[in-house]
Amino acid sequence: MKLTCLDLELNQPSGKIIQIGAVIGDTETGEILDRLRLYVDPNELISEFITNLCGITQDDIDSYGTSLEEAYFALKKFHKQSSFINPIVTGK
User: Fold this and answer.
1) Which residues contact 83 (CB under 8 A, 6 or more apart)?
2) Dihedral angle at the C-alpha atoms of 82, 25, 52, 66, nearest 10 degrees?
3) Mean pLDDT score, 56-60
4) Which of 23, 38, 40, 75 has the most beta carbons within 10 angstroms of its beta carbon?
């Protein structure tokens, strides 16, 4: 079975999304089939705490950041290419 796993990085203290990571994996073989990394421009400066924690810099956002809407459509396209019927969503 294929599934998409997501990882979000958030700026602090605002909690705005600054990076979306995703992988498509095969749960039977454990193989990673595809990867996606998107930088999202939160329209605010990246905190020093986040740069130290995640390694995401203001230059990364300025150079590669897209709008949250553009990132959503890129993630949607990435997810559809894996031919899912029932996505699994979990979170805390």
Assistant:
1) 2
2) 0
3) 97
4) 40
